[in-house]
């Protein structure tokens, strides 16, 4: 592990310590590491649309809205190869929350998420992606291959 030193003026240092504590960090090093990872992920996702990712897409919609559930389902079926799992929660008599866990190329996951979020009637859509390296692996003790998704950062 490498060490490096940074200098902060008193005001910035106090603000950082306050942010660190309010976020639950017990030391500056872990807070700085997470900030660096977050920025590196952001830059990677912005510049590397050919890479792969794992992601969660969350969105809320009114299931009584005309044909909305069918339109969303059609989008899911058109991208069935991306979905690892999904969860559907009935929030009240009208609104549903769905969370979809995805794995695939950054571009395909982004396209899928944009289609779902842009569907008329979908509200509060949010995509969270982490860049990964995807590997198909076969182990001697297992009859079939499976996928490993290793975070890049």
Automatic annotation (TrEMBL):
Record-annotated residues binding Ni(2+)?
A: 77, 88, 90, 96
CDD domains, per database record? RHH_NikR_HicB-like
In the UniProt record, does the keyword Ligase occur? Answer: no
Could you give the cofactor binding note from the entry?
A: Binds 1 nickel ion per subunit.
Q: Which parts of the sequence belong to the Transcription factor NikR nickel binding C-terminal domain?
A: 54-129
The organism's place on the tree of life at top rank: Bacteria
Role this protein plays: Transcriptional regulator.
Q: Which family does it belong to?
A: Belongs to the transcriptional regulatory CopG/NikR family.
Write down what this protein is called. Answer: Putative nickel-responsive regulator
Organism encoding this protein:
Nitrosomonas aestuarii
Its ancestry begins with: Bacteria, Pseudomonadati, Pseudomonadota, Betaproteobacteria, Nitrosomonadales
């Amino acid at each position: 592990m490498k060490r490096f030193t940074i200098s902060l003026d008193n005001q910035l240092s106090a603000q950082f310590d306050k942010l660190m504590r309010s976020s639950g960090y017990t030391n500056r090093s872990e807070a700085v590491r997470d900030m660096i990872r977050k920025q590196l992920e952001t830059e990677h996702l912005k510049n590397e649309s050919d890479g792969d990712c794992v992601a969660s897409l969350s969105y809320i919609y009114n299931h009584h809205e005309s044909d909305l559930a069918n339109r969303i389902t059609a989008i899911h079926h058109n991208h069935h190869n991306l979905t690892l799992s999904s969860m559907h929660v009935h929030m009240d008599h009208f609104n549903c929350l769905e969370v979809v866990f995805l794995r695939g190329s950054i571009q395909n996951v982004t396209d899928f998420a944009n289609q779902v979020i842009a569907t008329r009637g979908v509200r509060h859509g949010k995509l969270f992606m982490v860049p990964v390296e995807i590997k198909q692996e076969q182990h001697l003790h297992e009859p079939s291959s499976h996928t490993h998704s290793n975070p890049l950062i």
